[in-house]
């Protein structure tokens, strides 16, 4: 029997309804997979740093990279549907991994939880290393910090006249940098810490060799770069001061690496 026109319409509507149902189910599973639909499944926490000037799309990428959310796309969709982009503040957050997009948006809306960041400057760091680490770990621009410590804008009591660079005059250690810190306050803190450490050291034996405190610090930097173990330090120091006294070339590999601007074995 041939179907009537009415029958054809009913069949077509049934097919369309079936396709719509399939699309709805597929859409539901897709939205679930990217975190727009569904609840949180927290599994541990992670620190997330949102720099100043980061937009919602960049925040989404950060959250996906840190495994806070399953999909950056899901977060973007949620922000578009619910708003809240303007409520995301720059700063450091401790967020749970495995959040839904909505859960992550709620967590960010509470504002940054971490008021400071711990920054470690390794021993043997050059000014370029200090600037790089600071730029990576904080919102302080590496270029601005480097300009301060290389051009004489911040000075140390130990700097001779005519020397603008603070190379060797920043104390490498672990510091807590707070949000209100800027490049100058950090530079002054590192300088002051080294000045305080140097004040605790007796320089009488060094002065007998005819060098200044500043020159002794320069020699100490060479020793730091040359020595593999603590036991070698005194021997290296003796070699350097002996060669200085007789006018010999120092022959220090570390100074060549520094001149080349590259840490090399």
Main sheet record: 2 strands, antiparallel
Oligomer: single chain
Count of DSSP-assigned helices: 11
Beginning-to-end CA distance, first to last residue: 90 Å
Strand order of the largest sheet: 1-2
Approximate strand percentage: 5-15%
The coarse silhouette is elongated
Helix-strand string: HEHHEHEHHEHHHHH
The share of residues in helices is: 40-55%
Radius of gyration: 30 Å
Poorly predicted segments: none
Beta strand count: 4
Mean pLDDT score, rounded?
84
**Structural class assignment:** mainly alpha
How would you characterize this protein structure?
The protein contains 11 helices and 4 strands. It is mainly alpha-helical and 265 residues long. The protein has a two-stranded antiparallel sheet. Helix 3 packs across helix 4 and helix 9 packs across helix 10 (231-246). The protein is elongated, with a radius of gyration of 30 Å. The relative contact order is 0.08.
Task: Tell me the layout of helices and strands.
Elements: H1 5-33, E1 45-50, H2 56-65, H3 72-82, E2 91-96, H4 101-109, E3 116-120, H5 127-137, H6 142-150, E4 174-178, H7 183-199, H8 204-207, H9 213-226, H10 231-246, H11 253-260
Name a few traits of the molecule.
52% helix, 11 helices, two-stranded antiparallel ribbon, 265 residues, elongated, mainly alpha
Quick summary:
This protein is mostly helical. Helix content is 52%, strand content 8%. Helix 2 packs antiparallel against helix 3, helix 5 (127-137) runs antiparallel to helix 6 (142-150) and helix 9 (213-226) crosses helix 10 (231-246).
